[in-house]
Amino acid sequence: MAFFKYTAKNKFGENIKGKVEAREISQAASLLSSRGLLVIKIDPFIKDAFAGVRLMMGGVKFADIVSLTRQLATMITAGLPLASALNILVRDGKVEVTRLMAVILQDVEGGHSFADALAKHDKIFSRLYIQLVKAGETGGVLDTVLERLADNMEKEKEFKAKTKGALIYPTIVVIAMLAVGVIMMIFVIPKLTEMYRDFGSELPFLTRALIGISDGMIKYWYIMFAFIGGAIFSWKSYYKTKLGRYKIDEIMLKLPIFGELKKKVILTDFARTLSLLLGSGISLLEAIAIVTESVENIVYRTALQEVSKQVEKGSSLSESLSHYEMFPVILHQMMSVGEETGKLDEVLKKLSNYFEQESEHAIKNMTTAIEPMIMVVLGLGVGAMVIAVIMPIYNLTSQF
Q1: Could you give phi then psi for residue 6, rounded to 5 degrees?
Q2: Which of 367, 345, 19 is nearest to 168 (CA)?
Q3: What's the whole-number mean pLDDT along residues 148-173?
Q4: pLDDT at position 310
């Protein structure tokens, strides 16, 4: 059952508003008519008028999907029918999630499968999510699939949080450094420039360079913003092209420290997702196709597309992966063992845990390396600025 809000006229011609519980909109309208009400408007229940707008703007976040997946898994494992579990989510939750669940519940009670109902919201639910639910419904193991999916998504959420958390400190330091530099150039240096001009003495090169940069930022700030905007626009335009995206993604993988981290993150997601798909009964070729779509880096995606073609021709997955240096030896060696023993999904799960630990070590190494580098750059910048400011004063005093 779902909730619907309505606006109707009673027998006295008065407009009334309220909420009614029914399986679908037509049933809710019939129920209101039986009460002697003339229905003017009826919609799935939401708590505020802006929920629909927020939903279209991506109001349902990844964390919301993780939460509702865990709740659904718990309720269905406990023996609740799917419709009842969805109905509970309709009544309890964020506004955006409530509205989404109301629409999905309406489709399910209207005769659609859960997977088909989710497929109508493919911008919120990934193809991986929808295919796993479909496999769970087909095999009668939806509770098990949702449990695995919830575990997988919670690990992904935790891993993303660790990655973002490790980069917070360096990001804050860099932003603060840039902000202080801009303030110095716009507000402090011009004051010193006026003072030095009053002295009428020859200024050192470093001081003249600093004053020149400051004057340029003040007088030609619009050119600077136009240049930055043009650079960003050009970068995005180039990245949208097939060649541009490939080249940029290739460069990102070759960057020191960050490139290795990127590779380990991709391998973690690859192994975890493939393990989940195979463990849920999805065929190898279909699983590879889904994993390929989920990989954002075009270099790895291109390689996996070629791997899929080789597997389709009869090669083993481990052998196909061994032809590409971007997949480490341990990956295809362990996968070969999994293929021979018929436990490829279990081996992939262990590999995902291994790569996740490696990624965490890479994150720690990256933050350990970035912090002193930032301090060195910050020290050099501040030192150069201080020398440029003090040197003219020192030259002036040494003349007396």
Answers
A1: -140, 155
A2: 367
A3: 80
A4: 92
Q: How many domains does the chain have?
A: 3
Three-state secondary structure along the chain?
CEEEEEEEECCCCCEEEEEEEECCHHHHHHHHHHCCCEEEEEEECCCCCCHHHHHHCCCCCHHHHHHHHHHHHHHHHCCCCHHHHHHHHHHCCCHHHHHHHHHHHHHHHCCCCHHHHHHCCCCCCCHHHHHHHHHHHHHCCHHHHHHHHHHHHHHHHHHHHHHHHHHHHHHHHHHHHHHHHHHHHHHHHHHHHHHHHHHCCCCCHHHHHHHHHHHHHHHCHHHHHHHHHHHHHHHHHHHHCHHHHHHHHHHHHHCCCHHHHHHHHHHHHHHHHHHHHHHCCCCHHHHHHHHHHHCCCHHHHHHHHHHHHHHHCCCCHHHHHCCCCCCCHHHHHHHHHHHHHCCHHHHHHHHHHHHHHHHHHHHHHHHHHHHHHHHHHHHHHHHHHHHHHHHHHHHHHHCC
Same domain, 24 and 162: no
- Give me the CATH number covering residue 278: 1.20.81.30
Tracing tokens 């490790």 back to the chain, one arrives at: 166
pLDDT for position 367: 75
Tell me the pTM. Answer: 0.68
